[in-house]
Amino acid sequence: xxxxxxxxxxxxxxxxxxxxxxxxxxxxxxxxxxxxxxxxxxxxxxxxxxxxxxxxxxxxxxxxxxxxxxxxxxxxxxxxxxxxxxxxxxxxxxxxxxxxxxxxxxxxxxxxxxxxxxxxxxxxxxxxxxxxxxxxxxxxxxxxxxxxxxxxxxxxxxxxxxxxxxxxxxxxxxxxxxxxxxxxxxxxxxxxxxxxxxxxxxxxxxxxxxxxxxxxxxxxxxxxxxxxxxxxxxxxxxxxxxxxxxxxxxxxxxxxxxxxxxxxxxxxxxxxxxxxxxxxxxxxxxxxxxxxxxxxxxxxxxxxxxxxxxxxxxxxxxxxxxxxxxxxxxxxxxxxxxxxxxxxxxxxxxxxxxxx
Length: 356
Fold this sequence. Notes:
- By secondary structure, this protein is of the alpha/beta class.
- The chain has one domain (47-355): TIM Barrel.
- 30% of the residues lie in helices and 19% in strands.
- It is built from eleven helices and 13 strands.
- It has helices at residues 37-45, 60-65, 73-78, 122-138, 148-154, 174-183, 199-207, 224-231, 238-248, 273-283, 311-324, and strands at 15-19, 25-29, 32-34, 49-51, 54-57, 85-89, 159-162, 189-194, 214-219, 255-262, 287-292, 327-333, 338-343.
- The strands form two sheets. Strands 4-5-6-7-8-9-10-11-13-12 form a ten-stranded mixed sheet, with helices on both faces.
- Strand 10 (255-262), helix 10 and strand 11 form a beta-alpha-beta unit.
């Protein structure tokens, strides 16, 4: 466990149902937002860990890495330690979008806001999620193919991926959470993935000295019509919100990434590429990750396997973006169907300094 974190008992509490502004129900316990018990049971069956309104899970590549069967592409591109990656969200069942390609349980998402007076503190959330992650890891000690030394190391995260489910920028104490994670002795990096719907929170992160080591902005459309069809947002001004966040990237004092998820027959029309290229030039991020939609999880009920994009198509799209912009090919991982291109106008070492 990270220095200063102990696993204590969590007292039982009385639950009550309250109505959110969208008319959906959110369970609260002693004033703290909780994930509804029926949804919690389904999430636990899917191997999620839960603490209040937070969720944690073991990534496919974390489990493979302790068996020496490969590492996440973020290790290949940026140097992060796959087996010491902790993927979690402080807003597990809260999101402003219902993205058609999301493999998370968007059908479970509860509400459009998190009352600042009724959210757990970063320390409270992490205490519970560390315990849940440790519980999930313990099951792998019985795997004869697992490296026990790597499993022991994995107990102490060095990398945090705030991206598991829901939209983390809805958590009103996110600046405090990121500062807390950075203060831990073992922490080398913190990645935050956002859908761009809360530009005011991104401003807060910058103003409150709480930017992550690397900020990801999810991108799957370069025009309003496609954006609305793919993301199925709940905010009426969602496209404007996303653009506000996108236009902030070049001015943020941290590493930035645009992640484009290609979905065949949704955003792969060649006529869309001019708009995509213009978007990348405007954003001025350090890196652009171009990846295929993957037909897994809950997305299989909304899309077909045929909506996945072949690796040669990912390469061709990335090459076209590079030809139209200041970006150039950097690297790729075929098994994950992803190519990364780097901004020639904002060159930095792709490998994060703490891992170099």
